[in-house]
Amino acid sequence: MSFQVTVLPSGRVYSVDDDETLLGAAIRQGIGLPYGCKDGACGSCKSKLVEGNVTHGEHQSKALSADEEAQGFVLTCCARPHTDCTLEARTVPGAGEFPVLKLPSRVLAIDKPAADVAVIKLQLPANQQLQYRAGQYVEFILRDGARRSYSMANAPSRLGTPPAIELHIRHMPGGKFTDHVFGALKEKDILRMEGPFGSFFLREDSDKPIVLLASGTGFAPIKAIIERLQDEGITRPVHLYWGARARADLYLHDWAEQAAAAMPSLTYVPVLSEAKPDDAWTGRTGFVHQVVMTDFPDLSRHQVYACGAPIMVESAQRDFAAQCGLPPEEFYADAFTSEADKHQG
Ligand SMILES: Cc1cc2nc3c(=O)[nH]c(=O)nc-3n(C[C@H](O)[C@H](O)[C@H](O)COP(=O)(O)OP(=O)(O)OC[C@H]3O[C@@H](n4cnc5c(N)ncnc54)[C@H](O)[C@@H]3O)c2cc1C
Ligand code: FES
């Protein structure tokens, strides 16, 4: 049995099979709904159900509150329809543009630019071409079927020869996948993955100035977006804020400085929240999103792209809109949610 879903205001119609979520079916058919974690934790897929009935699976209350649910909002990644439905959701041009492929990848190189960060190059198979937008992510499919998401850190134009994607992976001690990455993973290992996924990428139909906001390895998709800006010769003003605890955590600080030196439209502001005496840090300190608010008390004419720790993304989304006048629809984000976030109340 399948149901028809109509998406407003675009008027696009797609079908959802038994046991599929509204989002799963939309991704399969290239409909381009907004989303991030696909797992009820980030809230990026929140949409209004105008007509129809769905069963809502488990999700975080911070992604969708009981109040919002009562008002008819749903998380498309957790909602399974049992009637035809009408959904009010902004479609994201380009989000479903490229085919989602399952493919094996081979570890070409593993570097550790910081104690808890691995930069991994993964060679793509010669017979399958992974197309994606700078900012999107892939999922590794682990042996037990669990999945883990990682954002490409290189723009698709910079895959190199042989073609390889670059990922920045932070070790979460006790984590199913990253314990393996920081333990047994070695060159030539094969990892199964699927992608591209996500609606976090540059909106190129706008000429608004851009704030890029990263914490930790949230820098990965931001780096890919900067490469995209360079490759396309886009000269919109870009302000990059990268937050980390200590200097050593800014694992590609030199890359960011060089990018800013080469791109007159780009400024780079690194921010440390726990600078150590050894860091001899003379730069900005504090919470990275608050530093942005000091520098840009008025964000009403900006676009913001934020990526990394869920707490940073949530704080920025809330405070930029409430205190700096950022239009909510001009905030684009991927929150790096993990099992830890999914098991918080
Ligand atoms: C869209 C997206 C893109 C992402 N991109 C990146 C990226 O580019 N780089 C990056 O570093 N990360 C990224 N992430 C995060 C990444 O997908 C993983 O969540 C992260 O690497 C942890 O994976 P893991 O398997 O090692 O840990 P998990 O197994 O998910 O565990 C994470 C932590 O939670 C703890 N934990 C496990 N189970 C529970 C439980 N039941 N209750 C409480 N605590 C628990 C573990 O001990 C560990 O400390 C992204 C996430 C999303 C959603
Ligand atoms: S809550 Fe649905 S995509 Fe994250």
TrEMBL record:
<protein>
    <submittedName>
        <fullName>Oxidoreductase FAD/NAD(P)-binding domain protein</fullName>
    </submittedName>
</protein>
<dbReference type="InterPro" id="IPR039261">
    <property type="entry name" value="FNR_nucleotide-bd"/>
</dbReference>
<dbReference type="Pfam" id="PF00970">
    <property type="entry name" value="FAD_binding_6"/>
</dbReference>
<dbReference type="GO" id="GO:0016491">
    <property type="term" value="F:oxidoreductase activity"/>
</dbReference>
<keyword id="KW-0001">2Fe-2S</keyword>
<keyword id="KW-0411">Iron-sulfur</keyword>
<dbReference type="Pfam" id="PF00175">
    <property type="entry name" value="NAD_binding_1"/>
</dbReference>
<dbReference type="InterPro" id="IPR001041">
    <property type="entry name" value="2Fe-2S_ferredoxin-type"/>
</dbReference>
<keyword id="KW-0408">Iron</keyword>
<dbReference type="InterPro" id="IPR017927">
    <property type="entry name" value="FAD-bd_FR_type"/>
</dbReference>
<dbReference type="InterPro" id="IPR006058">
    <property type="entry name" value="2Fe2S_fd_BS"/>
</dbReference>
<dbReference type="InterPro" id="IPR017938">
    <property type="entry name" value="Riboflavin_synthase-like_b-brl"/>
</dbReference>
<dbReference type="InterPro" id="IPR036010">
    <property type="entry name" value="2Fe-2S_ferredoxin-like_sf"/>
</dbReference>
<dbReference type="Pfam" id="PF00111">
    <property type="entry name" value="Fer2"/>
</dbReference>
<keyword id="KW-0479">Metal-binding</keyword>
<dbReference type="InterPro" id="IPR001709">
    <property type="entry name" value="Flavoprot_Pyr_Nucl_cyt_Rdtase"/>
</dbReference>
<dbReference type="GO" id="GO:0051537">
    <property type="term" value="F:2 iron, 2 sulfur cluster binding"/>
</dbReference>
<dbReference type="InterPro" id="IPR008333">
    <property type="entry name" value="Cbr1-like_FAD-bd_dom"/>
</dbReference>
<dbReference type="InterPro" id="IPR012675">
    <property type="entry name" value="Beta-grasp_dom_sf"/>
</dbReference>
<dbReference type="InterPro" id="IPR001433">
    <property type="entry name" value="OxRdtase_FAD/NAD-bd"/>
</dbReference>
<dbReference type="InterPro" id="IPR050415">
    <property type="entry name" value="MRET"/>
</dbReference>
